[in-house]
Amino acid sequence: MNRTQRRRVRDGALYAVLTLALVGAAVVTDWEAVTTNFLDGPTWRAMWPEIVTVAVWNTVTYTVISFVFAFAVALVLAFMKLSPLAVYRWLATAYIEFFRGLPALVVIFFMAFAVPLAFHWIPPGGLVGAGIVGLIVTYAAYMAETLRAGIQAVPKGQREAAQSLGMNGAWTTVSVILPQAIRIVIPPLTNELVALIKDTSLLFVVGMQADQVELSAFGQNNTVTFANASPLLAIALFYLVVTLPMTRLVAWLERRQQRAR
Amino acid sequence: MTTVEPERGARAIEVRDLHKYYGSHEVLKGVDFHVDAGQVVCVIGPSGSGKSTLLRCVNRLEEPTSGRILVEGIDICDPEVDLAAVRSRIGMVFQQFNLFPHMSVLKNLCVAQRRVRKRSQDEAVRIARDNLAKVGLADKENAYPAHLSGGQQQRVAIARALSMEPDMMLFDEPTSALDPELVGDVLAVMRTLATDGMTMMVVTHEMGFAREVGDNLVFMDGGVIVEEGDPVDVLSHPRHARTQAFLSKVL
Ligand SMILES: Nc1ncnc2c1ncn2[C@@H]1O[C@H](COP(=O)(O)OP(=O)(O)OP(=O)(O)O)[C@@H](O)[C@H]1O
Ligand SMILES: [Mg+2]
């Protein structure tokens, strides 16, 4: 047997084992139980259209708000970390290390209490809004490191070229450095965005009103209400509806960018 | 901030007793150097001799440790001086081109004109097109740098610097990163510039260019200027042993 034939045999054996395992699992599965518990028609119909108009809508809204503010904070932190002033660098490092070391759940929970108490101010959305502050400060820490790496990845000659043309520091950063840095960090930033989408499910710890539920809370509530697991399958599908196009889009952007280089 | 106007009759570039340290490593050990208006001065020397450092001190991309640098009579190390304004009068061309990769050729040539020279879009585009034509790339204004050859990129970089209508140009080994067959186009553009009377300081390994175009030739080694003078003299009758050793290797 030559190499190709050996590989064919090995691949064939692998496929056979895999198929057997799937068939085995299908045989021992209680399909009736699966159908009644996960594909229960009345439950699916009862969730419509709130699963989109409330749950998906809130998931996306919480994600967008968190991402936009976290990005802004992260940008400030990234520049502080690159600052010639040691105080700024130290403050940014302390912030990043602190919030990267804590579970997002803990920070959300903490902010839900701390923000209204400390500032005598209830953010829009009440406790959920305060919980979002927790998501923002946590993700800002991650995104700051990503952005800093991206800014540093822009070749030094770019800033020098802009300066030699008489452009000042701020304008150089805005028109020359940042556009290139952002392109570099689009892939890691997308990972963080997808993680953020999923982490909006942590907001449930602060307690949500019926019109505030995002996909996870919506799924849990309905599972309890209908004593049926169909809502879990439904929200899983909708999470994928939100995340998959995004990851595909970024993969496409990355390929296109590589071609342009 | 004082906007100092160029002093009449002053030298284009005047460097006095320039010292530059990186940490405890002294890279420039007291350099006196000048370029007169309209002159082309070429700087040659072995790798690590401090040529780039000297050139980059002239627009303060490197911070001198001590000494004075006057550009058109203006002390560029004076904390009161508007450094960006001085830099905008000094064109610079890098070994690695350093075009902005996310901008089209035309945008590369316009961005600083608009922002620093405060020119209208129409005027900036007109000046950009003039300079692209000058370097023989009028048909490339919509291309992105990644789609151009090294020689084309370097000519765009020259056109970008020229679009600021600078009083002088600094070149740091502009042809060293190019394939041999592309060097000629770039040198031709530089030759034309010199003929048109541009003040130029050129760090180069192109001895032919230095001989034909240069008004003055400076040989550096170990952070000092070892020898300088008329290019033909220095290249054919080097007086110092170090110059002789260097030239015997490169010629
Ligand atoms: N940023 C820096 N930090 C520390 N040392 C540096 C730095 N830049 C340059 N040097 C050192 O300074 C010396 C002079 O460097 P410079 O780049 O001016 O030489 P050069 O004559 O231009 O050489 P080449 O022909 O290789 O470009 C070298 O020994 C180099 O290692
Ligand atoms: Mg050099």
From TrEMBL, chain A:
UniProt main location, coarse: membrane
Membrane topology annotation: Multi-pass membrane protein
SUPFAM superfamilies tied to this protein: MetI-like (SSF161098)
Keyword Zinc-finger on entry: no
Spans traversing the lipid bilayer: 12-31, 51-80, 101-119, 125-144, 165-186, 232-253
Keywords, sorted A to Z: Amino-acid transport, Cell membrane, Membrane, Transmembrane, Transmembrane helix, Transport
GO MF terms held by the record: transmembrane transporter activity
UniProt cross-references to Pfam families, sorted A to Z: BPD_transp_1
Domain ABC transmembrane type-1 stretches: 56-250
Family: Belongs to the binding-protein-dependent transport system permease family. HisMQ subfamily.
Protein name per Swiss-Prot or TrEMBL: Amino acid ABC transporter permease
Species for this entry: Nocardioides agariphilus
Automatic annotation (TrEMBL), chain B:
Enzyme Commission number, as recorded: 7.4.2.1
Keyword terms: Amino-acid transport, ATP-binding, Cell membrane, Membrane, Nucleotide-binding, Transport
Subcellular locations according to the entry: Cell membrane
CDD domains: ABC_HisP_GlnQ
Membrane topology recorded in Swiss-Prot or TrEMBL: Peripheral membrane protein
Domain ABC transporter positions: 13-247
Catalyzed reactions: a polar amino acid(out) + ATP + H2O = a polar amino acid(in) + ADP + phosphate + H(+)
Signal peptide (residue range): none
TM regions (residue ranges): none
Keyword Nucleotide-binding: yes
Any one GO MF annotation of this record: ATP hydrolysis activity
GO terms under cellular component: plasma membrane
The family this protein is said to belong to: Belongs to the ABC transporter superfamily.
Family annotation (PANTHER family): AMINO ACID IMPORT ATP-BINDING PROTEIN (PTHR43166), GLUTAMATE_ASPARTATE IMPORT ATP-BINDING PROTEIN GLTL (PTHR43166:SF9)
Protein name according to UniProt: ABC-type polar-amino-acid transporter
Native species: Nocardioides agariphilus
Upper lineage: Bacteria, Bacillati, Actinomycetota, Actinomycetes, Propionibacteriales
